[in-house]
Amino acid sequence: MPRSRLNQRQARQAKRNIIIIALGSCVLLALFLIFGTNLLVKFSLLVERESATAQEQVDTFVAPPSLDYIADATNSAEIDITGSGESDGYIKLFVNGKQVKKADIQSDNTFSFRRIKLTPGENSIKAKFVNKDNKESKFSETTIITYSNKAPELSIISPNDGQSFNKDHNPLKITGKTDQNVKVTVNDFWAVVDGQGNFYYNLSLKGGDNEIRVQAIDEAGNKAEKTLKVSFAE
């Protein structure tokens, strides 16, 4: 009998445990259905909003124009600027941060600006595209061009004008000084120029008078020229 009563108590306890577990499961299921559904709805709305925002960004993106190659330096106060961009719009051109002109996009997606004025020194040039809905692109890549119309410095250290030389000085070493980043020619042959503008060239002399013409040419195309004569006795 004791064992039978013990078995009955264990059976009743097991039933209570089953009922408690079942009730707990129902409560958890109910909570999930209530709050879990809301979470799913909120997540779905979030994804929808993000998708709409991404699509809006794609729809409103305006590609910036592209400028054609421009030389790093010029000795002209005015230059022409060309490039390409999207169709159905126009281009705003900016020089040194200020808008200077507008130009329509042509049927082949190109544009051009004529006789754009530069200021002495460095000039930054960039552009924007504006579409038919009046939406602007970001700036194009910036191009820097230096305007200078001043001839480079040029001095000939050796030889002196009117000097005479014999066979011990043939070829004759021509030396001098100019500005940095300047090219030098001696009688139309390229001289060696170092980073500080010092140059030299070994010139073969002929009997009698020899004319020596030295030219210095900077990146903008400005030139300085000096001419001297020396005599050579064979």
Topology, please?
Layout: H1 2-60, E1 66-67, E2 73-74, E3 78-84, E4 89-95, E5 98-104, E6 110-117, E7 121-131, E8 143-147, E9 154-158, E10 164-165, E11 172-178, E12 183-186, E13 189-190, E14 192-193, E15 198-203, E16 208-217, E17 223-232
Parallel strand pairs: 2-8, 10-17
Antiparallel strand pairs: 1-3, 3-6, 4-5, 4-7, 7-8, 9-11, 11-15, 12-13, 12-16, 14-15, 16-17
Describe what this molecule looks like in 3D.
There is one protein chain. This protein is an alpha+beta fold and 234 residues long. Among the domains are: 66-147, Immunoglobulin-like (Sandwich); 154-232, Immunoglobulins (Immunoglobulin-like). Helices cover 25% and strands 41% of the residues. It is built from one helix and 17 strands. It has one helix at residues 2-60; strands spanning 66-67, 73-74, 78-84, 89-95, 98-104, 110-117, 121-131, 143-147, 154-158, 164-165, 172-178, 183-186, 189-190, 192-193, 198-203, 208-217, 223-232. The strands form four sheets. The chain has a five-stranded mixed sheet, with no helix packed on it. It has a five-stranded mixed sheet with strand order 10-17-16-12-13, with no helix packed on it. A four-stranded antiparallel sheet has the order 9-11-15-14, with no helix packed on it. The longest helix is centred in the N-terminal third of the chain and has 59 residues, at 2-60. The chain is elongated and about 140 Å long. The N and C termini lie far apart (146 Å). Mean pLDDT is 86; it is low at 52-59.
